[in-house]
Write a structure and sequence with these properties.
The protein folds into two domains: 39 residues; 50 residues, HU Protein, Chain A. 43% of the residues lie in helices and 30% in strands. Helix 1 packs across helix 2.
Length: 90
């Protein structure tokens, strides 16, 4: 499912226009992004948790040349599945 399909389903299920559903989805994504950027987590009970995490610097090998390449440390977003979603997907 892509963003357009998700917006269409949200609009149908919530009896909204597609424009209103798109605004709601964009607002949700924007708020999750801003919260993670501040270093805080976002928890949706029974769905999951979005958390910022640190990835350490490391040296890897270029698969084409075999030469070592240094990858710098960075912050990444992680998603941990909640129990409710995990049980449904089983």
């Amino acid at each position: 499912m892509n963003k357009g399909q998700l917006v269409a389903r949200m609009a149908r299920d919530a009896r909204l226009t597609k424009a209103a559903a798109l605004r709601a989805l964009d607002a949700f994504l924007d708020n999750v992004t801003r919260t993670l950027k501040k270093g805080e987590k976002v928890t949706l009970v029974d769905f999951g948790t979005f958390r910022p995490a640190r990835r350490r610097a490391r040296v890897v090998l270029n698969p084409r040349t075999g030469a070592p390449v240094k990858i710098t440390a960075r912050r990444v977003a992680r998603f941990y599945v909640g129990k409710g979603l995990k049980d449904i997907v089983k």
